[in-house]
Write a structure and sequence with these properties.
The structure is a single chain. With about 210 residues, the chain is an alpha/beta fold. The protein has a single domain, classed as Collagenase (Catalytic Domain), CATH 3.40.390.10. It is about 20% helix and about 20% strand. The chain has four helices and nine strands, in the order ββββαβββββααα. It has helices at about 65-75, 150, 155-170, 200-210, and strands at about 15-20, 35, 40, 55-60, 85-90, 95-105, 110-120, 125-130, 140-150. Strands 1, 4, 5, 6, 7, 8 and 9 form a seven-stranded mixed sheet that branches. A two-stranded antiparallel ribbon has the order 2-3. Strand 7 and strand 8 form a beta hairpin. Helix 1 (about 65-75) crosses helix 3 (about 155-170). The longest helix has 16 residues, at about 155-170.
């Protein structure tokens, strides 16, 4: 039997979704401490803690065993002269992972992939899905990246890697960009985005946050 997520409960309030068509939800307020890019809010005010040196686990049943490491390399080794402090290493031990990768299939959905983040119950009762609004109030402990195989299969090898990288960045606290002027950003919310690697504005957020 495939391993199940370690969450205790989930309110199913998604941090983000990469979609083919319309973005499902947005937040409209921008705290003074949040980063912005071309008129759009780029990050949440809190972050994964700790986040600079973490394990990741590809759970059984996930076929993207090449695309995921490729996306991680894209994160750790951004192009040109950019650099950031992010380090990820693969583990098979769930307790050692702060970035979990799962696969599901839903052909009727426009969602290509999504992320949920979890904070530890202060009373030791497990992990709880925070939802996007709480990411401006609390740091979180780990992220789950969910890949919709029905939609991922439609993408090129490059687009799969970019999609996974985009979702990982949500796990670190970055937000979707929706304006057409930001189509070249890795955080553009639609699969029509043109980025093929880390982009400068997102790398700057990682360096500032972590």
């Amino acid at each position: 039997m495939d391993e199940m997520p370690r969450r205790k409960t989930s309110w199913r309030i998604l941090v983000s979704t990469l979609v083919v068509g319309t973005l499902l939800a947005t937040l409209h307020t921008t705290p003074a401490t949040a980063a912005t890019f071309n008129g759009e809010r780029l990050d949440f005010t809190k972050k994964m803690s700790p986040g600079t040196n973490i394990g990741y686990k590809i759970f059984p049943g996930n076929e993207y065993t090449s695309s995921i490491p490729a996306a991680i390399n894209s994160l750790m080794y951004p192009p040109g002269s950019m650099s950031n402090p992010m380090v990820l290493w693969q583990t098979t031990v769930t307790a050692n992972s702060q970035m979990d990768f799962y696969q599901y299939s839903k052909s009727a959905s426009d969602i290509v992939a999504y992320v949920e983040v979890f904070r530890k119950d202060d009373n030791g009762g497990g992990y709880y899905s925070m939802g996007a609004p709480a990411m401006d109030a609390f740091n979180w402990r780990y992220a789950e990246v969910w890949l919709n195989d029905a939609r991922m299969d439609e993408l090129s090898t490059t687009k799969r890697r970019v999609t996974i990288l985009h979702e990982m960045l949500h796990g670190y606290g970055l937000r979707d960009l929706k304006l057409a002027v930001n189509k070249a950003s890795i955080m553009y919310a639609y699969t029509s985005g043109t980025a093929t690697a880390m982009t400068a504005e997102t790398n700057t957020v990682l360096v500032t946050k972590y």
